[in-house]
Amino acid sequence: MVTLSGNLLYASFFLYLVATVLFAGSIKDKKGKSAEKGPNKWAKLALITTIVGFASQLGYFITRWIAAGHAPVSNLFEFTTFFGMSLVGAFIVIYFIYKTPMLGLFTLPVAILMIAYASMFPREITPLIPALQSDWLHIHVTTAAVGQAILAISFAAGLIYLIKAIDQSKSSKKTFWLEAIMFGLVCTLGFVIVSSTFSAMDYKAEFNWIDKTGTEAKLEYHMPALVGPHKGELLTAEKFEPIVEVPAIINAKKLNTVIWSIASGIILYLLLRLILRKRIGAALQPIVKNINLDLVDEIGYRSVLIGFPIFTLGALIFAMIWAQIAWTRFWGWDPKEVWALITFLFYAAFLHLRLSKGWHGEKSAWLAVIGFVIMMFNLVAVNLVLAGLHSYAGS
Amino acid sequence: MKDVKCECGHVNPHGTILCEACGRILEEHEREKQLVDMRYEGSARRSQTYNKTIVDKIWNFFSSVKVGVWLIVITLIASALGTIFPQEMYIPPVMPAEVYYEDQYGWLGKLYYELGFHNLYSSWWYLLLVASIGISLVICSLDRVIPLYRALKAQRVTRHEGFLKRQRLFGISAAENLEESYEKVKEKLREKRYHIREEDGNILAEKGRFSRWGPYVNHIGLIIFLIGGMLRFVPGMYVDEVMWIREGETKVIPETDGEYYLKNDQFILEVYDKNKDKEVFSEAIENSGMVAKNFQSDVTLYKKKGDSIAGEKPELEKVKDDEIRVNEPLRFENFALYQSTYKLNELNKMTFALTNKQTNEEFGMLTVDLNDPKEKYDLGNGYSVEVVSYFPDFEFDESGEPVTKSRIPNNPAFVFKMLTPDKPEGEVSFVAIRQTIEPFGDNTYKMAFKGIDTKNVSGLTVRKDLTLWIISLGGLIFMIGVAQGSYWNHRRIWIRKVNDEVWVAGHTNKNWHGLKREISIILENTGINEPEDQVQNENKESGGS
Ligand code: HEM
User: Which residues form the Cytochrome c assembly protein domain (chain A) (predicted)?
Assistant: First the structure.
């Protein structure tokens, strides 16, 4: 069952890749023709592939659920994969409303990156600790993820908007920030490549180090340690000796991973710039030139409007119900809770800003991007850095 | 101030921009615009009309969406600041907060503490921010909902031409076979569940008006929620106590006025077992060592019977047996008892043997209940032991005197007096774990340590929260409101005969794409042209897209 489940996940991953290529094809095909005629053959094929991929991932989810005896949303790998799946699901629904293949071309890569990122975390099925043994956990986590995924569609729409609308003929603050988003995505890719390479090499280096209470501890790196732990002493023979050492209050291993991701991101990005000979944003601009900006703006707004109530229900209301049962109080200002509140407040601000005219279009698109950054911060940084009760304690 | 009478005869309140009934433009400067501003139907809002007195100024401040958004954004940023370092309630109680933040996070931590960020969410300024949002919610809603209600109620089927012409969706067609087209259109409108009103051959088709109340409903929900949160501070509404209870012990439950008692029959801690639990878990169990599976207290709840005199043991009546687990609290009346923590193997009893140091001969055993030691233990045959002093959590203070740190038997120590036939005066011995002191010179006898008995202790949270229902109600109303405002739209289609033409205009509060699609289906094959989107045309003309 577990093997089957894993294979279904691989299959869906592969299908999403194919679907992305097909969506790209559908946009190429449209060149010169009227954009109003509805989806062409390529787009239909792409959509079918996406749906099959989604079904396959649903299969992964169900089989893993059966194998574990609980819904697979209880550790970072499972949650992030589920997020990716919800993103694809949300895209499919929105596609049926607006019929824009372009959205697929931008949403699917984000989902693919997310699933790849998820796979870098420990993948074994974990038993549930007492606090997690509640149906409310599963209800809360799945609804919250679905809400976030729908909100994330507005990020994809926002990206399309910005790529088309921003003037690439000269460099400006706008082109800089758009490139920053691209760079962020490239870094995620870098992280995936680097960690899977070293894990394929089975790289392990053990250190003795002194933690902040002054006690000696052991630490295992899975990537060459550019940054070593406090008073670190390499135990494994013939492994890379750290270049610098950090004080004990900084988590050296995580910092090392971040440095690796950024470094590989920079290399990848430079490579891309070398090949494309222009900004990534500029390179993508021709692809989106036929899209109607008003429509993209509306898709973005609409997805926030659809996603916001679901997010509120899942990430705040259901979360409070569960917290009341599991932790005796519905709200405790735990970092994860606070970041859910921040996300909520942010999108509330977004909706209110939409009430005034000046915030439609480009500004709205920027806001959608910021919203996504907040959600990713909640997913990545809050889980791994600002550890609280919620932290799945990823490594 | 004077009301404004429109040409159509309707009397509008002072400050109205578009006549509530016919939509005629009442404000001169609006007339120059290509499109009318349809927000709140151009109704007269207090905040837009009066700005003289201090009350007006405050009202206008809080009813501004711009101010509202600022309040939300500032709250958001403040909330984020509170997550940089853990809040005071989450730091381990090893040292005072004052020291902890600097010790752990250096000067940044010190700054954090000094700025009061370690208790950010209960700081006066954070509460003030939340309160301002609450006030703003009330005022901004009142400012809009009443005029909006008036305008939507008073609206007439026949709208002024200037109003129609300045709608975002607007089109003109030549009128041929009008009767027939009208029938077709009405048919289709009905299919799409529009509510149709007719007047002089003009049509107003409307649906989803109730969605306009969504924001106000959700704001009411939020206000109720905030009020619920405030009630927490009213005495008696909220109880948050921790109750430590040993196995076998019966204790009064705090905050129940001595009405309820709890007995802890057993505390159970289970961990996942590689061999017994699902095989798929084995890898994870191996990687992380030990994974807890269950924390559970088997308890019996008792209720006091009748009145008891102070000091006297109350008579208890059993209410029920229950198993308290994480996620499964024990509930009674308005209380809930949660399994929140535990302590394993707390010392409970110690056993000693009175022994002759030379011959090692034993003269009887005694077991001291560490939570309730007796004063004297009679061992028979003229042997007995007195407990002169007892230090449950013993240490030597600065002057070298034995003292106890707490009442919990973490490190018990005794001063025993051993009375034997040959030493009728008794010998005094100070006995602590791995340590015996004979203060008055060498003794003949000693208290030989024989064994300990431990017990588990459950830490239960006693919770009463009478604000929960208000908070839930607020949450529910909020959800109804957001769903109402987000998943439905208010759509209107006006069809009006003007001389030999048919004018069609459409308006929706959101989702224009959907309205356009719907109108195109409705007008298909009716001979009436689809209205055009004047916003998109405008953009195109100005080279915008
Ligand atoms: C955290 C606090 C708040 C939340 C969660 C919230 C939520 C909402 C939501 C979901 C909507 C509907 C938006 C839409 O459907 O487009 C809305 C509309 C609105 N909100 Fe708020 N709101 C909050 C605070 C405020 C404040 C402080 C103000 C006052 C300045 C305000 C003024 C408005 C107005 C004027 C509308 C539009 C009403 C209409 O379209 O008729 N809100 N709010």
Answer: 74-181, 267-390
